[in-house]
Design a protein that fits this description.
By secondary structure, this protein is α/β, with parallel strands linked by helices. 37% of the residues lie in helices and 12% in strands. Strand 2, helix 4 and strand 3 form a beta-alpha-beta unit. The protein is globular and about 70 Å long. It binds pyridoxal-5'-phosphate. The site of pyridoxal-5'-phosphate (PLP) has 14 residues, from helix 3 and helix 4. Pyridoxal-5'-phosphate binds next to helix 3 and helix 4.
Length: 382
């Protein structure tokens, strides 16, 4: 075991990986004078679509704006109910609120922490218009079961794949490539980053045209800058951000592989630590795309004290994730504690550990040893 000389250094929760190629392409954009909706944006869309194996992809300013345009493309609005998970990042419910649709939360599967299709089935009623599954922490949602449910009831599907680029589902298909509208996000902690940015995979050419128009103030492709065919937004991605995106797609396979390597190191090292349950990496044909490394602490462990212990030793960690049905704008719809026991228990006991592709074996060891020590277990030599 290599013991690197980093005992005193801080270990962050996440760390983007940008280098010479990002600089080169960003410089190309700066020198081109085309800073938005230029050739680099189109190239980013083409290259990400090719990587995913889909016909088309529409770049937007964030994962949240991708979700918002997806909700509009599906026509969800006032009076409509959409089945979704309470164990997510808040944007996956907010995007429904923007359009006046109601998020109907359904509890999650205790292993994958994704929307449980059996619970979703029991929540369908005459007002249900759609399903918004989230591939949480990069683990693929139960898409075949959810699509069957949608098919039976004529529901639309919007996949929130913001945390899951490269995840593979139980039918061996990559997230976002099933023909549903699907969204990706490229904030700096994601598997690939443009700083801020997002992408939406359209369900066909008509949807693509609508998305491209709505991200650009309602201008169709053949319209002048001051023409507007309908309501739109400024959800454009700058070509400078797209330059980072092109460079990141070029190395995406390697970024994902290196994240998976760090995850398997964690799994090995944490096997010896009592009171820590590691996340599932794969099941049948399903493969997680590693976004964060979130462990579940035993019920009796004091999570805040654990975070404080790690923090005092220069190791970042975070309670992950708060249940979104308990935020004020969702409580207004009547949601309360105790309604989704599986999600709430996961939320109460989960802890995100430092996780990024450049993490060294020595850093993983240090995190695991300090975690063991926080839990009152003797530090072991790795
Ligand atoms: C599941 C999920 N949905 C949506 C988003 C929103 O993406 P963004 O922060 O790019 O708006 C995120 C990003 O953190 C996310 O994790």
């Amino acid at each position: 075991m290599r013991l690197d000389n980093q005992q005193s250094q801080q270990i962050p929760l996440a760390q983007p990986e940008v280098g010479a190629r990002e600089e080169e392409l960003a410089l190309e954009v700066l020198r081109s004078g085309r800073l938005s909706l230029g050739p680099m944006g189109e190239r980013f869309e083409r290259e990400l679509a090719a990587w995913l194996g889909v016909e088309d992809a529409v770049a937007v300013s964030s994962g949240t704006t991708a979700l918002h345009l997806g909700v509009r493309a599906l026509g969800w609005g006032p009076g409509d109910e959409v089945l979704t998970s309470p164990f997510s990042f808040v944007a996956s419910a907010n995007c429904l609120l923007y359009e006046g649709a109601k998020p109907v939360f359904c509890d999650v599967d205790p292993v994958t922490l994704n929307l449980d299709p059996a619970v979703a089935r029991s929540a369908v009623n005459a007002r249900t218009r759609g399903i918004l599954p989230i591939h949480i922490f990069g683990y693929p949602a139960a898409m075949p079961e959810l699509e069957a449910l949608a098919g039976e009831h004529g529901l639309g599907i919007l996949e929130d794949a913001c945390e899951a680029i490269g995840a593979v589902d139980s039918e061996g298909r990559v997230a976002g490539a099933r023909g549903n509208l699907a969204t990706f996000a490229f904030y700096a902690n994601k598997q690939m980053t443009t700083g801020e940015g997002g992408m939406i995979v359209p369900s066909g050419p008509e949807a693509a045209a609508r998305l491209r128009s709505e991200r650009n103030q309602g201008r169709a492709a053949d319209m002048g800058w001051l023409d507007h065919g309908g309501l739109g937004f400024n959800y454009r991605l700058s070509d400078l951000a797209a330059a980072l995106g092109v460079a990141q797609v070029e190395k995406l396979d390697s970024l994902l592989e290196r994240r998976a390597t760090v995850a398997s190191l964690y799994e090995q090292r944490l096997a010896a630590v009592e009171g820590v349950e590691v996340p599932v990496a794969a099941r049948g044909s399903e493969r997680r795309s590693w976004f964060v490394y979130v462990v579940r602490l035993a019920d009796e462990v004091d999570r805040d004290a654990t975070i404080a212990h790690l923090g005092a030793r220069g190791i970042a960690s975070k309670a992950y994730l708060p249940c979104i049905h308990l935020f004020p704008q969702l409580r207004e719809l009547g949601y309360r504690e105790g309604q989704f026991p599986v999600a709430e228990a996961a939320s109460a006991h989960s802890l995100a550990l430092p996780f990024f592709p450049a993490m060294s074996e020595g850093q993983v060891d240090r995190v695991c040893q300090e975690l063991a020590s926080a839990l009152g277990q003797p530090a072991r030599q790795g």
